[in-house]
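Data deposition worksheet. Section B asks for the primary sequence of the deposited chain exactly as it was used as input, without tags or linkers unless they were present during the calculation. Section C holds the resulting structure in token form. Section D is free text for depositor observations; keep each observation to a single sentence. Incomplete worksheets are returned to the depositor.
Section A, Depositor: J.P.
Section B:
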Amino acid sequence: MCLLVIETDHLVRDNLTHHLRQRGFTVRTGQNRAGVAHILKECAVEVALLGLEGVGREGLEFLRDIRAASPMTRVILMTPPDCLHDAIEGIKMGAYDDVPVPYDIDLLCVKIKRAASQGARRTKPP
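Section C:
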């Protein structure tokens, strides 16, 4: 499974990537829209983690880009308390789920696996 972490804060991104790789995930990272677009063309991303902290409405533009370029990718929003309205809007726009920040890594891993398994079921032929 290819997992994409989109987070503008490099310390948060590196820390999260480290923990996810320790748990066996194959992780790609992005911090801007051009980089994310390149990754989506290059690899079949099953799940994307999208950090909303500090990006405001631009986070929803990331979501729109992902949904357009890779409709089967499940997007999980990482939502700080002050961005709850953006998370609600993101769910309405097609995000799969959200997880509050600070996140619990075990809960996040459960949500990633659930998202990937549901995405796999949608792509299997009848």
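Section D:
The radius of gyration is 13 Å.
The CA atoms of residues 115 and 121 lie 10 Å apart.
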